[in-house]
Amino acid sequence: MSTPTYVGPEPAASHREIANLIARYAELVDGGDFAGLGALLADATFTGSGSPVSGAGAIEEMFRGTLIVYGDGTPRTKHVTTNLIVELDGDTAAARSYVTVYQALPELPLQPIAVGRYHDRFAWDGTRWRFAERRVHIDLVGDVSRHLRAAAG
């Protein structure tokens, strides 16, 4: 009897799936879907400007408590993620990317309000990739007074 050979995730498909997870995060934030963010990051630890947060409920609550949401149910932002680098290592992966956050409101012309980097780790569960960690590093900050509750208060 031969020893089974490891068959892990296919590299090109893995790059695509990881890029889609990163894009899905932006889509959920910009859509004000904090429950969706909790589900997306359920197996991850999220570190932004505060203490690390883990678990779907805690991550959802952190976003609800941090971001200002407007009448349309969104924070009126667009997160644009660029310069994506994905490094695969068997059942784990790491990614680095840049993020620019834009915001516009009736009284606020469209403008970038923050620029930074994402440092992510992913785990393959045998069927799909999942976030294991997201660390957000903000390098440049503009007017976030209409985006972040702490900045507004």
Automatic annotation (TrEMBL):
Residues 13-135 form the SnoaL-like domain. It comes from the Bacteria. This is SnoaL-like domain-containing protein.
